[in-house]
């Protein structure tokens, strides 16, 4: 994978928020992935993901977070899927909007590794589950909303991908040990 070419085509904008995952594989700290979220073009989807990175607590409810959740499905040369903060196995989902929420748009394409996209069960069924591409996946265009990209930590994504199998069950537990928002310091 040519990381320099990937970075050259970055569409990073200063006003887009950034989030991070600290990942452990088999209980061993592996590294950090930093994401730029395309809030300028897909604000609802980006906000939903960011709230789960920060820890979302509805009024009088429990705290929902990606922290301690796992990547439950990893298929080499395709994608790494996580975000089931309900059941941990790909069967559960929730959103900050109450239930599932509609697809915002399909402006961004699955044209390279490192793209953050919504996992769903069909049109307009977005929730907490997401995936990160490890290859170009154009057959997903028009079906899954791309809402961010890895801007640092592609080596961590590679290590996650190495734990994958053709059927998707990871060889070892891949856990998000910490997550949150990265606040940019303003230059005043």
TrEMBL record:
Q: What class of enzyme is it?
A: isomerase
Q: What domain of life does the native source organism fall in?
A: Eukaryota
Q: Which UniProt keywords apply?
A: Isomerase, Rotamase, Signal
Q: Which Pfam families match?
A: Pro_isomerase
* Biological process annotations from GO: protein folding
What Gene Ontology terms describe what this protein does at the molecular function level? cyclosporin A binding; peptidyl-prolyl cis-trans isomerase activity
Give the record's GO CC terms: ciliary plasm; nucleus
The reaction(s) annotated as catalysed by this protein in its Swiss-Prot or TrEMBL entry are: [protein]-peptidylproline (omega=180) = [protein]-peptidylproline (omega=0)
Q: Might you give the EC number(s) for this enzyme? A: 5.2.1.8
Question: Where does the PPIase cyclophilin-type domain lie?
Answer: 20-181
What is the documented function of this protein?
PPIases accelerate the folding of proteins. It catalyzes the cis-trans isomerization of proline imidic peptide bonds in oligopeptides.
Family recorded in the similarity comment? Belongs to the cyclophilin-type PPIase family.
- Name of the protein described by the UniProt record: Peptidyl-prolyl cis-trans isomerase
Native organism taxonomy = Eukaryota, Sar, Alveolata, Ciliophora, Intramacronucleata
């Amino acid at each position: 994978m040519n990381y320099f070419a990937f970075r050259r085509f970055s569409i990073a904008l200063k006003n887009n928020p950034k989030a991070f995952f600290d990942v452990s594989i088999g209980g061993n700290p592996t590294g950090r992935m930093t994401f730029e979220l395309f809030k300028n073009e897909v604000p609802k989807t980006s906000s939903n993901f960011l709230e789960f990175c920060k820890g979302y607590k509805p009024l009088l409810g429990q705290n929902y977070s990606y922290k301690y959740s796992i990547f439950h499905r990893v298929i080499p040369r395709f994608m790494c899927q996580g975000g089931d903060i309900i059941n941990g196995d790909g069967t559960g989902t929730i959103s900050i909007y109450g239930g599932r929420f509609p697809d915002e748009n399909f402006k961004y394409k699955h044209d390279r590794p490192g793209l953050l996209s919504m996992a769903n069960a069909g049109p307009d069924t977005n929730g907490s589950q997401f995936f990160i591409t490890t290859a170009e996946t154009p057959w997903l265009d028009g079906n899954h909303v791309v809402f961010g990209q890895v801007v640092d930590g592609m080596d961590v994504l590679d290590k996650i991908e190495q734990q994958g199998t053709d059927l998707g069950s990871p060889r070892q537990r891949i856990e998000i040990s910490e997550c949150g928002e990265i606040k940019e310091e303003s230059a005043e």
